[in-house]
Amino acid sequence: MFIDHAKIYVVAGSGGAGCVAFRREKYIPKGGPSGGDGGHGGDVIARADRHIHTLLDFKFETRYKAERGTHGMGSNMTGKSGESLVIRVPVGTVIRDAEDGRVLADLLQEGQEAVIAKGGRGGRGNSRFTTPTNRAPREWEPGFPGEERTVELELKLIADVGLVGLPNAGKSTLLSRISAARPKIADYPFTTLTPNLGIVRAGEKGTFVVADIPGLISGAHEGKGLGIQFLRHIERTKVLAILLDCNSESMESDYHTLIHELESYSPLLLQKKRMIVYTKKDLSPGKFSGLKKKVTGPVPALTISAVSGEGLDELIRLLWDILQEEERTSSLS
Ligand SMILES: Nc1nc2c(ncn2[C@@H]2O[C@H](COP(=O)(O)OP(=O)(O)OP(=O)(O)O)[C@@H](O)[C@H]2O)c(=O)[nH]1
Ligand SMILES: [Mg+2]
User: Looking at the domain that runs over 158-332, which CATH code has it been given?
Assistant: First the structure.
Protein backbone atom coordinates (compact mmCIF):
# COMPACT_ATOMS: atom_id res chain seq x y z
CA MET A 1 0.00 0.00 0.00
CA PHE A 2 1.32 3.43 -0.88
CA ILE A 3 0.51 6.36 1.26
CA ASP A 4 0.25 10.00 0.41
CA HIS A 5 -0.12 12.73 3.05
CA ALA A 6 -0.96 16.40 3.23
CA LYS A 7 -1.76 18.88 5.97
CA ILE A 8 -4.06 21.83 5.43
CA TYR A 9 -5.71 24.53 7.47
CA VAL A 10 -9.45 24.98 7.05
CA VAL A 11 -11.55 27.89 8.25
CA ALA A 12 -15.33 27.89 8.03
CA GLY A 13 -17.16 31.19 7.54
CA SER A 14 -18.30 33.08 10.61
CA GLY A 15 -21.91 34.05 10.96
CA GLY A 16 -23.08 37.58 10.18
CA ALA A 17 -24.07 39.84 13.08
CA GLY A 18 -27.68 40.39 14.08
CA CYS A 19 -29.12 43.82 13.38
CA VAL A 20 -30.70 46.45 15.62
CA ALA A 21 -33.51 48.29 13.85
CA PHE A 22 -37.00 49.54 14.50
CA ARG A 23 -39.96 49.80 12.23
CA ARG A 24 -40.52 53.27 10.85
CA GLU A 25 -43.99 53.54 9.50
CA LYS A 26 -46.25 56.44 8.91
CA TYR A 27 -48.74 57.12 11.71
CA ILE A 28 -47.07 54.56 14.00
CA PRO A 29 -45.00 56.63 16.40
CA LYS A 30 -43.14 53.77 18.05
CA GLY A 31 -42.44 50.93 15.66
CA GLY A 32 -41.38 47.60 17.13
CA PRO A 33 -37.96 46.03 16.68
CA SER A 34 -37.17 44.83 13.18
CA GLY A 35 -33.47 43.85 13.18
CA GLY A 36 -32.93 40.62 11.23
CA ASP A 37 -30.54 37.79 12.11
CA GLY A 38 -27.12 37.45 10.56
CA GLY A 39 -26.62 34.80 7.84
CA HIS A 40 -24.84 31.56 8.71
CA GLY A 41 -21.22 31.13 7.74
CA GLY A 42 -20.34 28.64 4.98
CA ASP A 43 -18.99 25.19 5.88
CA VAL A 44 -15.80 23.67 4.59
CA ILE A 45 -16.83 20.41 2.97
CA ALA A 46 -14.63 17.62 1.66
CA ARG A 47 -16.00 15.68 -1.29
CA ALA A 48 -14.57 12.50 -2.83
CA ASP A 49 -14.01 12.90 -6.56
CA ARG A 50 -12.77 10.08 -8.71
CA HIS A 51 -11.06 12.47 -11.12
CA ILE A 52 -8.60 13.43 -8.43
CA HIS A 53 -5.83 10.96 -7.78
CA THR A 54 -3.35 12.61 -5.51
CA LEU A 55 -2.98 15.01 -2.62
CA LEU A 56 -0.37 16.93 -4.57
CA ASP A 57 -2.39 20.14 -4.90
CA PHE A 58 -2.73 20.37 -1.14
CA LYS A 59 1.02 20.61 -0.82
CA PHE A 60 0.95 23.90 -2.70
CA GLU A 61 -2.25 25.38 -1.41
CA THR A 62 -2.58 24.80 2.31
CA ARG A 63 -5.28 27.25 3.49
CA TYR A 64 -8.97 26.96 2.70
CA LYS A 65 -11.59 29.40 3.83
CA ALA A 66 -15.36 29.38 3.37
CA GLU A 67 -17.39 32.56 2.99
CA ARG A 68 -18.80 34.43 5.98
CA GLY A 69 -22.51 35.17 6.40
CA THR A 70 -23.63 38.75 5.82
CA HIS A 71 -25.11 40.84 8.62
CA GLY A 72 -28.81 40.97 9.32
CA MET A 73 -30.74 44.02 8.13
CA GLY A 74 -33.76 46.10 9.01
CA SER A 75 -37.29 45.00 8.09
CA ASN A 76 -36.41 41.65 9.68
CA MET A 77 -34.21 40.69 6.77
CA THR A 78 -31.88 37.80 7.54
CA GLY A 79 -28.36 38.13 6.17
CA LYS A 80 -27.30 35.94 3.29
CA SER A 81 -25.64 32.67 4.27
CA GLY A 82 -21.99 32.31 3.25
CA GLU A 83 -21.19 29.95 0.38
CA SER A 84 -19.74 26.64 1.57
CA LEU A 85 -16.34 25.74 0.23
CA VAL A 86 -16.06 22.31 -1.32
CA ILE A 87 -12.61 20.74 -1.35
CA ARG A 88 -12.31 17.90 -3.81
CA VAL A 89 -10.16 14.99 -2.62
CA PRO A 90 -9.40 11.57 -4.09
CA VAL A 91 -11.75 8.70 -3.30
CA GLY A 92 -10.24 6.84 -0.35
CA THR A 93 -9.04 9.91 1.56
CA VAL A 94 -9.18 9.82 5.34
CA ILE A 95 -9.30 13.22 7.05
CA ARG A 96 -8.19 13.64 10.65
CA ASP A 97 -8.06 16.50 13.09
CA ALA A 98 -4.33 17.15 13.34
CA GLU A 99 -4.54 18.00 17.02
CA ASP A 100 -6.27 14.97 18.49
CA GLY A 101 -6.13 12.51 15.59
CA ARG A 102 -9.93 12.15 15.52
CA VAL A 103 -11.25 10.93 12.16
CA LEU A 104 -13.47 13.64 10.68
CA ALA A 105 -14.20 11.90 7.41
CA ASP A 106 -13.45 8.64 5.64
CA LEU A 107 -14.50 9.22 2.07
CA LEU A 108 -14.73 5.89 0.35
CA GLN A 109 -17.25 6.55 -2.33
CA GLU A 110 -17.44 8.82 -5.33
CA GLY A 111 -19.41 11.94 -4.40
CA GLN A 112 -19.39 11.24 -0.66
CA GLU A 113 -19.18 14.44 1.41
CA ALA A 114 -18.36 15.45 4.94
CA VAL A 115 -18.28 18.77 6.74
CA ILE A 116 -14.79 19.21 8.14
CA ALA A 117 -15.30 22.73 9.55
CA LYS A 118 -18.76 23.94 10.41
CA GLY A 119 -19.76 27.49 9.63
CA GLY A 120 -20.73 29.79 12.52
CA ARG A 121 -24.37 30.56 13.21
CA GLY A 122 -25.60 34.04 12.41
CA GLY A 123 -26.22 36.31 15.42
CA ARG A 124 -29.81 37.17 16.38
CA GLY A 125 -31.21 40.56 15.53
CA ASN A 126 -33.00 42.69 18.11
CA SER A 127 -36.48 41.53 17.13
CA ARG A 128 -35.66 38.16 18.70
CA PHE A 129 -35.12 39.77 22.07
CA THR A 130 -38.60 41.18 22.50
CA THR A 131 -40.19 40.22 25.80
CA PRO A 132 -43.50 41.26 27.36
CA THR A 133 -41.59 43.76 29.48
CA ASN A 134 -39.20 44.96 26.86
CA ARG A 135 -40.92 45.87 23.62
CA ALA A 136 -38.02 47.81 22.21
CA PRO A 137 -34.90 45.75 22.88
CA ARG A 138 -31.57 47.06 21.73
CA GLU A 139 -29.88 43.74 22.21
CA TRP A 140 -28.29 41.85 19.38
CA GLU A 141 -25.72 39.11 18.91
CA PRO A 142 -22.55 39.16 16.89
CA GLY A 143 -22.12 36.25 14.48
CA PHE A 144 -20.55 33.10 15.88
CA PRO A 145 -17.10 32.20 14.58
CA GLY A 146 -16.75 29.32 12.13
CA GLU A 147 -14.74 26.29 13.17
CA GLU A 148 -11.12 26.32 12.18
CA ARG A 149 -8.61 23.54 12.41
CA THR A 150 -5.60 21.92 10.89
CA VAL A 151 -6.48 18.64 9.27
CA GLU A 152 -4.39 15.80 7.97
CA LEU A 153 -5.34 14.14 4.73
CA GLU A 154 -4.18 10.62 4.11
CA LEU A 155 -4.65 8.65 0.95
CA LYS A 156 -3.88 5.01 0.52
CA LEU A 157 -3.13 4.83 -3.14
CA ILE A 158 -4.08 1.96 -5.31
CA ALA A 159 -2.12 1.86 -8.53
CA ASP A 160 -3.96 1.75 -11.84
CA VAL A 161 -1.11 0.15 -13.76
CA GLY A 162 1.42 -2.38 -12.48
CA LEU A 163 4.80 -2.76 -14.20
CA VAL A 164 5.84 -6.39 -14.29
CA GLY A 165 9.11 -7.71 -15.67
CA LEU A 166 12.25 -9.69 -15.05
CA PRO A 167 14.96 -7.93 -13.05
CA ASN A 168 16.75 -5.29 -15.14
CA ALA A 169 13.95 -5.05 -17.71
CA GLY A 170 13.83 -1.29 -17.25
CA LYS A 171 10.74 -0.91 -15.04
CA SER A 172 12.15 1.72 -12.72
CA THR A 173 13.73 3.62 -15.60
CA LEU A 174 10.39 3.75 -17.35
CA LEU A 175 8.62 4.97 -14.21
CA SER A 176 11.22 7.70 -13.76
CA ARG A 177 10.68 8.90 -17.33
CA ILE A 178 6.90 9.07 -17.27
CA SER A 179 6.37 10.36 -13.73
CA ALA A 180 8.06 12.48 -11.12
CA ALA A 181 9.03 9.37 -9.14
CA ARG A 182 12.77 8.89 -8.70
CA PRO A 183 13.30 5.20 -8.02
CA LYS A 184 16.79 3.76 -7.84
CA ILE A 185 18.04 2.52 -11.20
CA ALA A 186 21.08 0.34 -11.79
CA ASP A 187 22.51 -2.19 -14.14
CA TYR A 188 22.08 -5.18 -11.87
CA PRO A 189 19.13 -7.34 -10.94
CA PHE A 190 17.01 -6.56 -7.88
CA THR A 191 17.81 -2.90 -7.75
CA THR A 192 14.25 -2.24 -6.69
CA LEU A 193 13.59 -3.72 -3.27
CA THR A 194 10.29 -2.12 -2.43
CA PRO A 195 7.54 -0.87 -4.70
CA ASN A 196 7.65 2.64 -6.11
CA LEU A 197 4.74 4.63 -7.19
CA GLY A 198 4.47 7.38 -9.75
CA ILE A 199 1.71 9.61 -10.98
CA VAL A 200 1.52 9.88 -14.74
CA ARG A 201 -0.16 12.78 -16.47
CA ALA A 202 -2.03 11.90 -19.65
CA GLY A 203 -2.03 15.39 -21.17
CA GLU A 204 -5.11 17.38 -20.26
CA LYS A 205 -7.21 14.29 -19.80
CA GLY A 206 -6.15 13.33 -16.33
CA THR A 207 -3.66 11.32 -14.35
CA PHE A 208 -3.16 7.71 -13.40
CA VAL A 209 -0.97 5.88 -10.93
CA VAL A 210 1.75 3.43 -11.93
CA ALA A 211 3.47 0.96 -9.60
CA ASP A 212 6.98 -0.32 -10.21
CA ILE A 213 7.62 -3.50 -8.27
CA PRO A 214 10.77 -5.58 -7.80
CA GLY A 215 11.67 -7.88 -10.68
CA LEU A 216 10.17 -11.36 -10.90
CA ILE A 217 12.17 -14.48 -11.68
CA SER A 218 11.23 -18.07 -12.33
CA GLY A 219 10.09 -19.60 -9.06
CA ALA A 220 9.10 -16.23 -7.59
CA HIS A 221 5.71 -17.63 -6.62
CA GLU A 222 7.56 -20.12 -4.39
CA GLY A 223 9.55 -17.34 -2.81
CA LYS A 224 12.60 -17.18 -5.10
CA GLY A 225 14.32 -13.87 -5.63
CA LEU A 226 12.37 -11.22 -3.84
CA GLY A 227 9.46 -13.57 -4.06
CA ILE A 228 5.86 -12.88 -4.53
CA GLN A 229 5.27 -10.64 -1.59
CA PHE A 230 5.14 -7.69 -3.91
CA LEU A 231 2.62 -9.14 -6.28
CA ARG A 232 -0.05 -8.22 -3.82
CA HIS A 233 0.69 -4.60 -4.72
CA ILE A 234 -0.56 -5.22 -8.21
CA GLU A 235 -3.51 -7.38 -7.25
CA ARG A 236 -5.77 -4.36 -7.25
CA THR A 237 -4.37 -2.61 -10.29
CA LYS A 238 -6.56 -2.48 -13.38
CA VAL A 239 -3.89 -3.06 -16.00
CA LEU A 240 -0.59 -4.92 -16.10
CA ALA A 241 2.20 -3.71 -18.34
CA ILE A 242 4.56 -6.61 -19.00
CA LEU A 243 8.04 -5.27 -19.73
CA LEU A 244 10.36 -7.31 -21.94
CA ASP A 245 13.89 -6.30 -22.88
CA CYS A 246 13.77 -6.47 -26.65
CA ASN A 247 17.47 -7.34 -26.77
CA SER A 248 17.00 -10.52 -24.79
CA GLU A 249 17.88 -13.70 -26.66
CA SER A 250 15.20 -15.55 -24.76
CA MET A 251 12.33 -13.12 -25.05
CA GLU A 252 9.71 -15.77 -25.61
CA SER A 253 10.68 -17.75 -22.55
CA ASP A 254 11.03 -14.49 -20.54
CA TYR A 255 7.44 -13.79 -21.42
CA HIS A 256 6.27 -17.27 -20.45
CA THR A 257 8.18 -17.11 -17.19
CA LEU A 258 6.38 -13.92 -16.25
CA ILE A 259 2.97 -15.20 -17.25
CA HIS A 260 3.58 -18.42 -15.36
CA GLU A 261 4.61 -16.56 -12.20
CA LEU A 262 1.59 -14.30 -12.35
CA GLU A 263 -0.74 -17.22 -12.87
CA SER A 264 0.83 -19.27 -10.10
CA TYR A 265 0.36 -16.40 -7.71
CA SER A 266 -3.23 -15.84 -8.69
CA PRO A 267 -5.08 -16.79 -11.89
CA LEU A 268 -7.05 -13.57 -11.40
CA LEU A 269 -3.98 -11.59 -12.38
CA LEU A 270 -4.24 -12.99 -15.88
CA GLN A 271 -7.81 -11.85 -16.16
CA LYS A 272 -6.68 -8.29 -15.93
CA LYS A 273 -6.16 -6.28 -19.06
CA ARG A 274 -2.53 -6.35 -20.03
CA MET A 275 -0.13 -5.02 -22.58
CA ILE A 276 3.43 -5.76 -23.58
CA VAL A 277 6.08 -3.07 -23.49
CA TYR A 278 9.31 -3.91 -25.28
CA THR A 279 12.09 -1.89 -23.68
CA LYS A 280 15.55 -0.60 -24.60
CA LYS A 281 14.84 -0.18 -28.29
CA ASP A 282 17.86 2.10 -28.61
CA LEU A 283 20.13 -0.85 -27.93
CA SER A 284 18.43 -3.07 -30.46
CA PRO A 285 20.39 -3.31 -33.68
CA GLY A 286 18.27 -3.16 -36.80
CA LYS A 287 14.54 -3.51 -36.96
CA PHE A 288 12.89 -5.19 -34.05
CA SER A 289 9.74 -7.20 -34.70
CA GLY A 290 8.56 -8.28 -31.27
CA LEU A 291 6.93 -11.53 -30.22
CA LYS A 292 4.51 -13.25 -32.51
CA LYS A 293 0.79 -12.83 -31.83
CA LYS A 294 0.59 -16.62 -31.60
CA VAL A 295 2.64 -16.43 -28.42
CA THR A 296 1.03 -13.42 -26.80
CA GLY A 297 -2.54 -13.61 -28.03
CA PRO A 298 -4.40 -10.38 -28.81
CA VAL A 299 -2.44 -8.22 -26.42
CA PRO A 300 -1.59 -4.63 -27.35
CA ALA A 301 2.15 -4.11 -27.62
CA LEU A 302 4.50 -1.19 -28.00
CA THR A 303 8.25 -0.68 -28.27
CA ILE A 304 9.91 2.05 -26.28
CA SER A 305 13.23 3.44 -25.28
CA ALA A 306 13.39 5.13 -21.93
CA VAL A 307 16.75 6.55 -22.98
CA SER A 308 15.75 8.21 -26.26
CA GLY A 309 12.15 8.77 -25.18
CA GLU A 310 10.80 6.95 -28.20
CA GLY A 311 7.30 5.55 -27.71
CA LEU A 312 6.74 7.07 -24.26
CA ASP A 313 3.95 9.46 -25.25
CA GLU A 314 2.28 6.71 -27.19
CA LEU A 315 2.58 4.37 -24.23
CA ILE A 316 0.91 6.91 -21.93
CA ARG A 317 -1.91 7.38 -24.44
CA LEU A 318 -2.38 3.65 -24.85
CA LEU A 319 -2.45 3.03 -21.09
CA TRP A 320 -4.93 5.86 -20.66
CA ASP A 321 -7.19 4.38 -23.32
CA ILE A 322 -7.01 0.91 -21.80
CA LEU A 323 -7.89 2.38 -18.41
CA GLN A 324 -10.85 4.27 -19.84
CA GLU A 325 -12.04 1.12 -21.56
CA GLU A 326 -11.63 -0.80 -18.30
CA GLU A 327 -13.65 1.84 -16.44
CA ARG A 328 -16.43 1.63 -19.01
CA THR A 329 -16.68 -2.15 -18.86
CA SER A 330 -16.50 -2.29 -15.07
CA SER A 331 -19.22 0.33 -14.71
CA LEU A 332 -21.46 -1.72 -16.99
CA SER A 333 -21.06 -4.92 -15.04
N1 LIG B 1 19.96 1.75 -23.25
C2 LIG B 1 18.93 1.66 -22.43
N3 LIG B 1 19.09 1.25 -21.18
C4 LIG B 1 18.01 1.17 -20.37
C5 LIG B 1 16.72 1.50 -20.83
N6 LIG B 1 15.84 1.30 -19.80
C7 LIG B 1 16.60 0.89 -18.76
N8 LIG B 1 17.90 0.79 -19.08
C9 LIG B 1 19.02 0.36 -18.23
O10 LIG B 1 18.75 -0.95 -17.77
C11 LIG B 1 19.26 -1.13 -16.44
C12 LIG B 1 18.16 -1.63 -15.52
O13 LIG B 1 17.17 -0.63 -15.40
P14 LIG B 1 16.14 -0.57 -14.18
O15 LIG B 1 15.15 0.45 -14.53
O16 LIG B 1 16.86 -0.47 -12.88
O17 LIG B 1 15.48 -2.01 -14.30
P18 LIG B 1 14.36 -2.68 -13.36
O19 LIG B 1 13.46 -3.47 -14.23
O20 LIG B 1 13.73 -1.66 -12.52
O21 LIG B 1 15.26 -3.67 -12.52
P22 LIG B 1 14.96 -4.30 -11.05
O23 LIG B 1 14.55 -3.20 -10.14
O24 LIG B 1 16.27 -4.88 -10.67
O25 LIG B 1 13.92 -5.34 -11.25
C26 LIG B 1 19.81 0.22 -16.03
O27 LIG B 1 21.20 0.20 -16.23
C28 LIG B 1 19.14 1.20 -16.97
O29 LIG B 1 19.93 2.33 -17.21
C30 LIG B 1 16.56 1.92 -22.18
O31 LIG B 1 15.48 2.23 -22.67
N32 LIG B 1 17.68 1.98 -22.93
MG1 LIG C 1 13.69 -1.45 -10.58
Answer: 3.40.50.300
